Amino acid sequence: MTTEIKRPIHKMGPIQSTLFGIAFLTMCAFGTSITATLLSDWKMEKAIPVEIKREEKILKITHYGNPRIIGRFFDLSDNTVAAYIPEINAVTSGPLLTFMSDSKIIESVDHELGHFYSEQFRIKHNIPKINTKNKYARFALEGIAGYFEHKTNNLPDTYTGNSQNLLDVNNIYQLYDGSYHFVKPILDADINKGILYLLKNIPTENDYKNQEQYQKKALESIVNKQ
Ligand SMILES: [Zn+2]
């Protein structure tokens, strides 16, 4: 008979038990990350075809096929919910997606599909690549994506901010709610002509500060192209 010599945890010295604790917590975090990754990828894969059909019906558009869906391993400190990666035409989920309600997952998927649509639209119309490091370009793109998210889910326009304040891309309210508020009248007039105008006339700082003037010009251009 062999004798197993087990060393109970409480017999460990302080250094060993600290190391054991760290190893245990790392394994738990690792396991949670893997589980969350698999779950969020699965939820996104399930939602994308359904949302493509809903957007086509509600927004009266035709999507350019399907985006690729890629899984990515993430750490739990990553606060991304979902993202569209134009370089590889792929939608990817982030860790927090797993923990969101079904309606919030759908809104996020609709938003990313808006980025997918506007990027494919840009390519089809031979519009030069958009520099997303330019915050006003980012503002226009987030507005288009926000339009897909809001309209498909019947979400209200609640923005009451003041565009005289400089655009701060770290300000979620300005970047997301503000950009939807900005593009809404333009895309309401005609979604495809509106996207075409926005992508060809990326707003400047001056346009941001004089949004009504930009919207008026955009609407005139849309009406003239009817
Ligand atoms: Zn976005």
Describe the structure.
The chain has about 230 residues and is mainly α. The protein has a single domain, classed as Neutral Protease, domain 2 (Orthogonal Bundle). About 60% of the residues lie in helices and about 5% in strands. The chain is built from seven helices and three strands, in the order αβββαααααα. The protein has helices spanning about 15-60, 100-125, 135-150, 170-190, 190-200, 205-210, 210-225; strands at about 70, 80-85, 90-95. It has a three-stranded mixed beta sheet with strand order 1-3-2. The N and C termini lie far apart (about 90 Å). The structure holds zinc ion. Zinc ion binds near residues 111, 115, 142 and 145.
Question: Which labels suit this protein?
Answer:
binds zinc ion, mainly alpha, three-stranded mixed sheet, 3 strands, 226 residues, Neutral Protease, domain 2, single chain, elongated
In short:
This protein has seven helices and three strands, in the order H-E-E-E-H-H-H-H-H-H. With 226 residues, the chain is mainly alpha-helical.
Hetero ligands: zinc ion
Q: What is the H/E string? A: HEEEHHHHHH
Strands ordered across the widest β-sheet: 1-3-2
Strand content: under 5%
**What structural class should be given to the helix and strand makeup?**
mainly alpha
Estimated radius of gyration: 23 Å
Helical percentage: 55-70%
Helix count, DSSP H or I runs of 4 or more residues: 7
CATH class: Mainly Alpha
Low-confidence sequence ranges: none
Shape: elongated
Main sheet properties? 3 strands, mixed
Mean pLDDT: 87
The total domain count is 1
How many distinct beta strands? 3
Alpha-carbon distance between the two ends: 91 Å
CATH topology: Neutral Protease, domain 2
CATH architecture tag: Orthogonal Bundle
